[in-house]
Amino acid sequence: MSSQQPAENRWNQIDRYVNGEMVEQERDLFEERMRQHAELAQQVHLHRDMLLGMEYYFMQQLKEQLALSDQKKKTFNWQLFLKIAAAVLLVAGLGGAAYYYSQRPADPEQLFLTYFEVYPNTLTQANRSESLPSDASPSDASLGDVSPSDTMPDEGMPEIATALQHYETGNFSQAAAALDQVLASANVSEDQRTALVFYRGVANLQLGNVRQAQADLAQVTRADTLLSDPAAWYTGLSYLREGRVAEARQLFEQLREAGGDYAQQAAKLLDELS
Amino acid sequence: MRLPAVFMEETYTEDQQLIAQIKEGNEASLVEVYQRYRPLFIQWAQKSYKIDESTAADVFQDAVICLYRNIVKGKLENLTSSLKTYLFAIGKNVLRKKLQTQVALDHDDLWVVENLQAEPIDHFAENDRQRLVARLMESIGEPCRSILQYYYFKGFSMEAIARAMNYKNENVVKTQKLRCLTSLKSMVRERYSSDDFM
Fold first, then answer.
1. Predicted ipTM?
2. From the CA of B177, how many Å to the nearest CA of chain A?
3. CB A248 within 8 A of CB A240
4. In which element (H, E) is residue B79 found?
5. CB–CB of B61 and A197 under 8 A?
6. What is residue A143's three-state secondary structure?
7. Residue B140 touches partner A, C-beta closer than 8 Å
8. Whole-prediction pTM value?
9. I need a surface site. Which of A113, A218, B77, B189 has the fewest CB within 10 A?
10. What is the pLDDT of residues B71-93, one digit of tens each?
Protein backbone atom coordinates (compact mmCIF):
# COMPACT_ATOMS: atom_id res chain seq x y z
CA MET A 1 0.00 0.00 0.00
CA SER A 2 1.49 3.34 -0.95
CA SER A 3 1.12 6.68 0.79
CA GLN A 4 -0.77 7.94 -2.30
CA GLN A 5 -3.83 5.84 -1.43
CA PRO A 6 -6.87 7.82 -0.30
CA ALA A 7 -6.46 8.83 3.39
CA GLU A 8 -9.74 7.24 4.46
CA ASN A 9 -8.90 3.92 2.91
CA ARG A 10 -5.48 3.88 4.61
CA TRP A 11 -6.93 4.89 7.97
CA ASN A 12 -9.64 2.25 7.75
CA GLN A 13 -7.08 -0.43 7.00
CA ILE A 14 -4.87 0.65 9.87
CA ASP A 15 -7.91 0.78 12.16
CA ARG A 16 -8.99 -2.70 11.18
CA TYR A 17 -5.48 -4.08 11.61
CA VAL A 18 -4.98 -2.56 15.05
CA ASN A 19 -8.45 -3.69 16.15
CA GLY A 20 -7.66 -7.26 15.06
CA GLU A 21 -10.41 -7.25 12.44
CA MET A 22 -8.34 -8.56 9.54
CA VAL A 23 -8.43 -12.20 8.53
CA GLU A 24 -5.14 -14.05 8.62
CA GLN A 25 -4.18 -13.66 4.97
CA GLU A 26 -4.97 -9.95 4.87
CA ARG A 27 -3.10 -9.43 8.13
CA ASP A 28 -0.01 -11.19 6.81
CA LEU A 29 -0.03 -9.03 3.68
CA PHE A 30 -0.49 -5.89 5.72
CA GLU A 31 2.38 -6.79 8.05
CA GLU A 32 4.60 -7.40 5.02
CA ARG A 33 3.72 -3.88 3.79
CA MET A 34 4.62 -2.52 7.21
CA ARG A 35 8.02 -4.13 6.94
CA GLN A 36 8.51 -2.58 3.51
CA HIS A 37 7.20 0.90 4.35
CA ALA A 38 8.52 2.49 7.53
CA GLU A 39 5.98 5.35 7.29
CA LEU A 40 3.11 2.87 7.38
CA ALA A 41 4.65 1.15 10.40
CA GLN A 42 4.92 4.54 12.14
CA GLN A 43 1.29 5.28 11.43
CA VAL A 44 0.24 1.90 12.80
CA HIS A 45 2.21 2.46 15.99
CA LEU A 46 0.70 5.91 16.38
CA HIS A 47 -2.79 4.52 15.83
CA ARG A 48 -2.19 1.78 18.37
CA ASP A 49 -1.02 4.31 20.92
CA MET A 50 -4.05 6.46 20.21
CA LEU A 51 -6.43 3.56 20.76
CA LEU A 52 -4.70 2.48 23.94
CA GLY A 53 -4.58 6.06 25.17
CA MET A 54 -8.30 6.46 24.47
CA GLU A 55 -9.08 3.20 26.22
CA TYR A 56 -7.06 4.29 29.24
CA TYR A 57 -8.93 7.61 29.32
CA PHE A 58 -12.36 5.98 29.13
CA MET A 59 -11.41 3.49 31.82
CA GLN A 60 -10.40 6.36 34.08
CA GLN A 61 -13.70 8.09 33.34
CA LEU A 62 -15.62 4.93 34.17
CA LYS A 63 -13.65 4.60 37.38
CA GLU A 64 -14.66 8.14 38.34
CA GLN A 65 -18.29 7.29 37.62
CA LEU A 66 -18.10 4.28 39.89
CA ALA A 67 -16.50 6.37 42.64
CA LEU A 68 -19.17 9.04 42.16
CA SER A 69 -21.91 6.44 42.59
CA ASP A 70 -20.45 5.73 46.05
CA GLN A 71 -20.34 9.42 46.84
CA LYS A 72 -23.86 9.98 45.59
CA LYS A 73 -25.17 7.31 47.93
CA LYS A 74 -23.47 8.99 50.90
CA THR A 75 -24.32 12.53 49.70
CA PHE A 76 -27.93 11.64 49.07
CA ASN A 77 -28.32 10.35 52.64
CA TRP A 78 -26.77 13.53 53.98
CA GLN A 79 -29.15 15.68 51.96
CA LEU A 80 -32.12 13.67 53.19
CA PHE A 81 -30.89 14.12 56.75
CA LEU A 82 -30.59 17.91 56.31
CA LYS A 83 -34.10 18.20 54.86
CA ILE A 84 -35.60 16.26 57.76
CA ALA A 85 -33.63 18.28 60.31
CA ALA A 86 -34.61 21.58 58.64
CA ALA A 87 -38.30 20.63 58.58
CA VAL A 88 -38.31 19.73 62.28
CA LEU A 89 -36.51 22.94 63.30
CA LEU A 90 -38.72 25.15 61.12
CA VAL A 91 -41.76 23.84 62.95
CA ALA A 92 -40.02 24.66 66.21
CA GLY A 93 -39.49 28.32 65.08
CA LEU A 94 -36.70 30.78 64.40
CA GLY A 95 -33.93 28.39 65.39
CA GLY A 96 -34.92 26.10 62.50
CA ALA A 97 -34.85 28.94 60.00
CA ALA A 98 -31.41 30.07 61.18
CA TYR A 99 -30.12 26.47 60.87
CA TYR A 100 -31.49 26.13 57.34
CA TYR A 101 -30.00 29.41 56.10
CA SER A 102 -26.72 28.73 57.84
CA GLN A 103 -26.52 25.51 55.81
CA ARG A 104 -26.99 27.21 52.42
CA PRO A 105 -24.43 25.64 50.14
CA ALA A 106 -21.88 27.67 48.28
CA ASP A 107 -19.90 24.69 47.01
CA PRO A 108 -20.67 23.92 43.30
CA GLU A 109 -21.51 20.31 44.04
CA GLN A 110 -23.81 21.35 46.86
CA LEU A 111 -25.45 23.86 44.52
CA PHE A 112 -26.04 21.00 42.09
CA LEU A 113 -27.71 18.99 44.83
CA THR A 114 -29.83 21.97 45.84
CA TYR A 115 -31.01 22.92 42.37
CA PHE A 116 -31.22 19.57 40.66
CA GLU A 117 -34.74 18.27 40.36
CA VAL A 118 -35.83 15.64 37.93
CA TYR A 119 -37.67 17.15 34.98
CA PRO A 120 -41.30 16.05 35.12
CA ASN A 121 -42.60 13.68 32.48
CA THR A 122 -44.55 15.91 30.14
CA LEU A 123 -44.93 13.47 27.28
CA THR A 124 -48.61 13.23 28.06
CA GLN A 125 -51.28 10.96 26.69
CA ALA A 126 -54.82 12.39 26.20
CA ASN A 127 -56.10 10.88 29.44
CA ARG A 128 -53.11 12.05 31.51
CA SER A 129 -53.18 15.80 30.88
CA GLU A 130 -54.47 16.39 34.43
CA SER A 131 -51.32 14.81 35.82
CA LEU A 132 -49.04 17.69 34.82
CA PRO A 133 -47.20 19.15 37.80
CA SER A 134 -49.01 22.17 39.20
CA ASP A 135 -46.00 24.44 38.75
CA ALA A 136 -45.51 23.47 35.11
CA SER A 137 -45.58 26.42 32.75
CA PRO A 138 -47.91 26.33 29.75
CA SER A 139 -44.97 25.49 27.51
CA ASP A 140 -44.55 22.27 29.47
CA ALA A 141 -47.96 21.05 28.36
CA SER A 142 -46.66 20.04 24.98
CA LEU A 143 -43.38 19.92 23.19
CA GLY A 144 -44.21 22.80 20.89
CA ASP A 145 -43.66 21.34 17.47
CA VAL A 146 -44.43 17.86 18.82
CA SER A 147 -48.14 17.13 18.90
CA PRO A 148 -49.60 14.91 21.63
CA SER A 149 -50.43 12.31 18.99
CA ASP A 150 -46.74 12.15 18.09
CA THR A 151 -45.76 11.64 21.68
CA MET A 152 -48.39 9.13 22.59
CA PRO A 153 -46.99 5.65 22.55
CA ASP A 154 -48.17 3.74 19.52
CA GLU A 155 -49.73 0.37 19.90
CA GLY A 156 -46.46 -0.94 18.52
CA MET A 157 -44.32 1.07 21.00
CA PRO A 158 -45.41 0.17 24.51
CA GLU A 159 -41.70 0.30 25.31
CA ILE A 160 -41.86 4.11 25.40
CA ALA A 161 -44.70 4.04 27.94
CA THR A 162 -42.76 1.52 30.03
CA ALA A 163 -39.62 3.62 29.95
CA LEU A 164 -41.49 6.76 30.96
CA GLN A 165 -43.27 4.91 33.73
CA HIS A 166 -39.91 3.89 35.16
CA TYR A 167 -38.85 7.54 34.89
CA GLU A 168 -41.96 8.80 36.65
CA THR A 169 -41.66 6.33 39.49
CA GLY A 170 -38.01 7.20 40.09
CA ASN A 171 -36.49 3.96 38.77
CA PHE A 172 -33.90 5.85 36.79
CA SER A 173 -31.52 3.02 36.06
CA GLN A 174 -34.37 1.04 34.56
CA ALA A 175 -35.62 4.14 32.79
CA ALA A 176 -32.20 4.78 31.24
CA ALA A 177 -31.89 1.14 30.18
CA ALA A 178 -35.37 1.14 28.67
CA LEU A 179 -34.73 4.42 26.85
CA ASP A 180 -31.46 2.99 25.47
CA GLN A 181 -33.44 0.13 23.94
CA VAL A 182 -36.16 2.39 22.57
CA LEU A 183 -33.64 4.78 21.03
CA ALA A 184 -31.75 1.90 19.48
CA SER A 185 -34.93 0.99 17.64
CA ALA A 186 -35.62 2.39 14.18
CA ASN A 187 -39.34 2.93 14.94
CA VAL A 188 -38.97 6.25 16.76
CA SER A 189 -39.82 9.54 15.06
CA GLU A 190 -37.35 12.41 15.01
CA ASP A 191 -39.31 14.47 17.53
CA GLN A 192 -39.83 11.54 19.83
CA ARG A 193 -36.13 10.80 19.65
CA THR A 194 -35.12 14.29 20.78
CA ALA A 195 -37.51 14.19 23.71
CA LEU A 196 -36.50 10.69 24.76
CA VAL A 197 -32.81 11.56 24.56
CA PHE A 198 -33.57 14.51 26.84
CA TYR A 199 -35.22 12.28 29.44
CA ARG A 200 -32.37 9.81 29.21
CA GLY A 201 -29.98 12.69 29.81
CA VAL A 202 -31.84 13.74 32.94
CA ALA A 203 -32.02 10.13 34.15
CA ASN A 204 -28.29 9.72 33.59
CA LEU A 205 -27.57 12.92 35.49
CA GLN A 206 -29.69 11.66 38.36
CA LEU A 207 -27.71 8.43 38.31
CA GLY A 208 -24.38 10.26 38.33
CA ASN A 209 -23.48 9.31 34.75
CA VAL A 210 -22.42 12.86 34.09
CA ARG A 211 -20.56 12.47 30.80
CA GLN A 212 -23.34 10.38 29.32
CA ALA A 213 -25.85 12.98 30.46
CA GLN A 214 -23.84 15.77 28.87
CA ALA A 215 -23.66 13.92 25.56
CA ASP A 216 -27.45 13.41 25.58
CA LEU A 217 -28.18 17.00 26.54
CA ALA A 218 -25.79 18.29 23.86
CA GLN A 219 -27.82 16.38 21.25
CA VAL A 220 -31.02 18.01 22.49
CA THR A 221 -29.46 21.46 22.40
CA ARG A 222 -28.34 20.85 18.78
CA ALA A 223 -31.90 19.81 17.83
CA ASP A 224 -33.16 23.30 18.79
CA THR A 225 -36.60 22.43 20.14
CA LEU A 226 -38.55 23.66 23.17
CA LEU A 227 -36.37 21.35 25.23
CA SER A 228 -33.23 23.33 24.40
CA ASP A 229 -33.56 25.58 27.45
CA PRO A 230 -34.14 22.72 29.88
CA ALA A 231 -31.22 20.90 28.25
CA ALA A 232 -29.02 23.95 28.81
CA TRP A 233 -30.18 24.19 32.42
CA TYR A 234 -29.33 20.57 33.16
CA THR A 235 -26.04 20.86 31.29
CA GLY A 236 -25.17 23.80 33.52
CA LEU A 237 -26.04 21.74 36.59
CA SER A 238 -23.87 18.90 35.31
CA TYR A 239 -20.94 21.32 35.06
CA LEU A 240 -21.54 22.30 38.68
CA ARG A 241 -21.46 18.61 39.54
CA GLU A 242 -18.01 18.43 38.01
CA GLY A 243 -16.81 21.67 39.55
CA ARG A 244 -16.66 23.38 36.13
CA VAL A 245 -17.97 26.64 37.52
CA ALA A 246 -16.96 28.98 34.68
CA GLU A 247 -18.73 26.86 32.07
CA ALA A 248 -21.79 26.52 34.28
CA ARG A 249 -21.90 30.25 34.87
CA GLN A 250 -21.76 30.93 31.13
CA LEU A 251 -24.78 28.72 30.47
CA PHE A 252 -26.81 30.17 33.34
CA GLU A 253 -26.02 33.70 32.13
CA GLN A 254 -27.33 32.76 28.68
CA LEU A 255 -30.50 31.38 30.22
CA ARG A 256 -30.95 34.51 32.31
CA GLU A 257 -30.46 36.77 29.29
CA ALA A 258 -32.85 34.69 27.18
CA GLY A 259 -35.64 35.49 29.65
CA GLY A 260 -37.37 32.14 29.23
CA ASP A 261 -38.72 29.67 31.77
CA TYR A 262 -35.32 29.18 33.40
CA ALA A 263 -34.30 32.85 33.61
CA GLN A 264 -35.40 33.30 37.21
CA GLN A 265 -33.79 30.09 38.48
CA ALA A 266 -30.62 30.87 36.57
CA ALA A 267 -30.46 34.36 38.10
CA LYS A 268 -30.91 32.95 41.58
CA LEU A 269 -28.23 30.33 41.06
CA LEU A 270 -25.84 32.93 39.62
CA ASP A 271 -26.32 35.00 42.78
CA GLU A 272 -25.22 32.05 44.85
CA LEU A 273 -22.24 31.39 42.60
CA SER A 274 -20.88 34.89 42.95
CA MET B 1 -18.31 -24.14 45.05
CA ARG B 2 -21.42 -25.08 43.10
CA LEU B 3 -24.81 -23.83 44.25
CA PRO B 4 -28.05 -25.86 44.08
CA ALA B 5 -29.29 -26.21 40.49
CA VAL B 6 -32.50 -24.20 41.01
CA PHE B 7 -30.69 -21.27 42.53
CA MET B 8 -27.99 -21.43 39.86
CA GLU B 9 -30.62 -21.24 37.12
CA GLU B 10 -32.20 -18.08 38.54
CA THR B 11 -28.94 -16.28 39.12
CA TYR B 12 -27.65 -17.45 35.74
CA THR B 13 -30.62 -15.85 33.97
CA GLU B 14 -30.24 -12.61 35.90
CA ASP B 15 -26.48 -12.59 35.28
CA GLN B 16 -27.03 -13.16 31.56
CA GLN B 17 -29.52 -10.28 31.51
CA LEU B 18 -27.08 -7.98 33.24
CA ILE B 19 -24.30 -8.94 30.85
CA ALA B 20 -26.58 -8.31 27.86
CA GLN B 21 -27.57 -4.91 29.22
CA ILE B 22 -23.97 -3.95 29.94
CA LYS B 23 -22.94 -5.04 26.45
CA GLU B 24 -25.67 -2.83 24.99
CA GLY B 25 -24.05 0.14 26.73
CA ASN B 26 -26.22 0.33 29.81
CA GLU B 27 -23.88 1.86 32.37
CA ALA B 28 -26.59 1.81 35.01
CA SER B 29 -26.49 -2.00 34.97
CA LEU B 30 -22.72 -1.90 35.45
CA VAL B 31 -23.16 0.46 38.40
CA GLU B 32 -25.75 -1.95 39.78
CA VAL B 33 -23.25 -4.82 39.61
CA TYR B 34 -20.61 -2.59 41.19
CA GLN B 35 -22.81 -1.50 44.09
CA ARG B 36 -24.16 -5.00 44.64
CA TYR B 37 -20.80 -6.71 45.12
CA ARG B 38 -18.66 -3.86 46.41
CA PRO B 39 -19.28 -4.39 50.15
CA LEU B 40 -18.67 -8.14 49.84
CA PHE B 41 -15.46 -7.74 47.91
CA ILE B 42 -14.05 -5.09 50.21
CA GLN B 43 -14.88 -7.15 53.27
CA TRP B 44 -13.33 -10.25 51.73
CA ALA B 45 -10.20 -8.44 50.50
CA GLN B 46 -9.59 -6.69 53.81
CA LYS B 47 -10.00 -9.91 55.73
CA SER B 48 -8.01 -12.13 53.37
CA TYR B 49 -5.13 -9.83 52.44
CA LYS B 50 -4.92 -7.38 55.33
CA ILE B 51 -5.35 -4.30 53.15
CA ASP B 52 -7.19 -1.12 54.02
CA GLU B 53 -10.64 -0.27 52.74
CA SER B 54 -9.41 2.39 50.34
CA THR B 55 -7.02 -0.04 48.60
CA ALA B 56 -9.67 -2.74 48.45
CA ALA B 57 -12.17 -0.28 46.97
CA ASP B 58 -9.63 0.84 44.37
CA VAL B 59 -8.90 -2.76 43.38
CA PHE B 60 -12.60 -3.51 43.07
CA GLN B 61 -13.19 -0.51 40.80
CA ASP B 62 -10.43 -1.76 38.50
CA ALA B 63 -11.93 -5.24 38.59
CA VAL B 64 -15.37 -3.96 37.58
CA ILE B 65 -13.82 -2.00 34.72
CA CYS B 66 -11.99 -5.12 33.53
CA LEU B 67 -15.24 -7.05 33.78
CA TYR B 68 -16.86 -4.39 31.61
CA ARG B 69 -14.11 -4.57 28.99
CA ASN B 70 -14.36 -8.35 28.85
CA ILE B 71 -18.12 -8.15 28.40
CA VAL B 72 -17.86 -5.56 25.60
CA LYS B 73 -15.24 -7.69 23.84
CA GLY B 74 -17.54 -10.69 24.00
CA LYS B 75 -15.37 -12.74 26.31
CA LEU B 76 -18.21 -13.58 28.68
CA GLU B 77 -20.75 -14.90 26.21
CA ASN B 78 -21.18 -18.30 27.85
CA LEU B 79 -21.13 -18.26 31.60
CA THR B 80 -20.09 -21.42 33.36
CA SER B 81 -20.02 -19.73 36.75
CA SER B 82 -21.87 -16.79 38.26
CA LEU B 83 -21.01 -13.22 37.40
CA LYS B 84 -19.92 -12.75 40.99
CA THR B 85 -17.43 -15.60 40.63
CA TYR B 86 -15.91 -14.04 37.53
CA LEU B 87 -15.81 -10.63 39.13
CA PHE B 88 -14.09 -11.89 42.25
CA ALA B 89 -11.62 -13.89 40.20
CA ILE B 90 -10.77 -10.78 38.17
CA GLY B 91 -10.49 -8.86 41.43
CA LYS B 92 -8.05 -11.39 42.84
CA ASN B 93 -5.84 -11.07 39.81
CA VAL B 94 -5.95 -7.28 39.86
CA LEU B 95 -5.06 -7.39 43.54
CA ARG B 96 -2.18 -9.77 42.86
CA LYS B 97 -0.74 -7.49 40.16
CA LYS B 98 -1.42 -4.22 41.91
CA LEU B 99 0.10 -5.25 45.17
CA GLN B 100 2.72 -7.56 43.69
CA THR B 101 1.59 -10.04 46.28
CA GLN B 102 1.03 -13.79 46.45
CA VAL B 103 -2.62 -14.64 46.00
CA ALA B 104 -3.94 -18.19 46.04
CA LEU B 105 -5.67 -18.90 42.72
CA ASP B 106 -8.28 -21.62 42.33
CA HIS B 107 -9.64 -23.20 39.14
CA ASP B 108 -11.94 -20.27 38.26
CA ASP B 109 -9.15 -17.79 38.95
CA LEU B 110 -6.77 -19.61 36.63
CA TRP B 111 -9.35 -19.60 33.84
CA VAL B 112 -9.73 -15.86 34.27
CA VAL B 113 -5.98 -15.31 34.19
CA GLU B 114 -5.68 -17.27 30.96
CA ASN B 115 -8.74 -15.97 29.12
CA LEU B 116 -9.78 -12.56 30.38
CA GLN B 117 -8.40 -9.09 30.82
CA ALA B 118 -7.66 -8.65 34.54
CA GLU B 119 -5.19 -5.83 35.13
CA PRO B 120 -5.07 -2.70 37.24
CA ILE B 121 -6.12 0.03 34.82
CA ASP B 122 -2.91 1.96 35.39
CA HIS B 123 -1.12 -0.87 33.60
CA PHE B 124 -2.96 -0.02 30.39
CA ALA B 125 -1.00 3.11 29.66
CA GLU B 126 2.33 1.64 28.61
CA ASN B 127 4.12 4.72 27.36
CA ASP B 128 4.15 8.51 27.47
CA ARG B 129 2.38 8.92 24.15
CA GLN B 130 -0.57 6.82 25.32
CA ARG B 131 -0.79 8.86 28.50
CA LEU B 132 -0.65 12.03 26.39
CA VAL B 133 -3.53 10.80 24.26
CA ALA B 134 -5.52 10.16 27.45
CA ARG B 135 -4.90 13.75 28.59
CA LEU B 136 -5.81 15.12 25.17
CA MET B 137 -9.17 13.36 25.26
CA GLU B 138 -10.28 16.03 27.74
CA SER B 139 -9.70 18.69 25.07
CA ILE B 140 -11.17 16.96 22.06
CA GLY B 141 -14.74 17.97 22.92
CA GLU B 142 -18.06 16.64 21.73
CA PRO B 143 -19.24 14.92 19.60
CA CYS B 144 -15.78 13.38 19.09
CA ARG B 145 -15.41 12.09 22.62
CA SER B 146 -18.78 10.33 22.48
CA ILE B 147 -18.25 8.88 19.01
CA LEU B 148 -14.85 7.51 19.93
CA GLN B 149 -16.19 6.18 23.21
CA TYR B 150 -19.14 4.46 21.55
CA TYR B 151 -16.98 2.86 18.87
CA TYR B 152 -13.73 1.95 20.61
CA PHE B 153 -14.77 1.58 24.22
CA LYS B 154 -18.38 0.46 24.12
CA GLY B 155 -18.07 -1.55 20.92
CA PHE B 156 -21.10 -0.04 19.19
CA SER B 157 -21.59 -0.51 15.46
CA MET B 158 -21.72 2.55 13.21
CA GLU B 159 -25.42 2.02 12.78
CA ALA B 160 -26.01 1.90 16.53
CA ILE B 161 -23.94 5.04 17.03
CA ALA B 162 -26.00 6.84 14.37
CA ARG B 163 -29.19 5.93 16.23
CA ALA B 164 -27.82 6.73 19.67
CA MET B 165 -26.45 10.12 18.62
CA ASN B 166 -29.23 11.06 16.23
CA TYR B 167 -27.12 11.11 13.07
CA LYS B 168 -28.67 10.62 9.67
CA ASN B 169 -26.93 7.33 8.87
CA GLU B 170 -23.80 5.30 9.52
CA ASN B 171 -21.86 6.99 6.72
CA VAL B 172 -22.13 10.30 8.54
CA VAL B 173 -20.76 8.63 11.65
CA LYS B 174 -17.87 7.09 9.70
CA THR B 175 -16.91 10.47 8.29
CA GLN B 176 -17.18 12.13 11.68
CA LYS B 177 -15.14 9.39 13.32
CA LEU B 178 -12.38 9.83 10.78
CA ARG B 179 -12.38 13.60 11.40
CA CYS B 180 -12.17 13.02 15.13
CA LEU B 181 -9.22 10.63 14.79
CA THR B 182 -7.45 13.02 12.43
CA SER B 183 -7.99 15.86 14.87
CA LEU B 184 -6.66 13.80 17.76
CA LYS B 185 -3.67 12.74 15.69
CA SER B 186 -2.90 16.41 14.90
CA MET B 187 -3.08 17.25 18.60
CA VAL B 188 -0.62 14.46 19.36
CA ARG B 189 1.73 15.60 16.61
CA GLU B 190 1.71 19.16 17.93
CA ARG B 191 3.12 17.93 21.18
CA TYR B 192 5.63 15.48 19.76
CA SER B 193 8.39 16.09 17.22
CA SER B 194 8.53 13.75 14.24
CA ASP B 195 11.54 12.02 15.82
CA ASP B 196 9.32 10.81 18.66
CA PHE B 197 7.23 8.77 16.24
CA MET B 198 10.11 6.42 15.48
1. 0.87
2. 11
3. yes
4. none
5. no
6. strand
7. no
8. 0.56
9. B77
10. 998 888 777 788 898 899 899 88
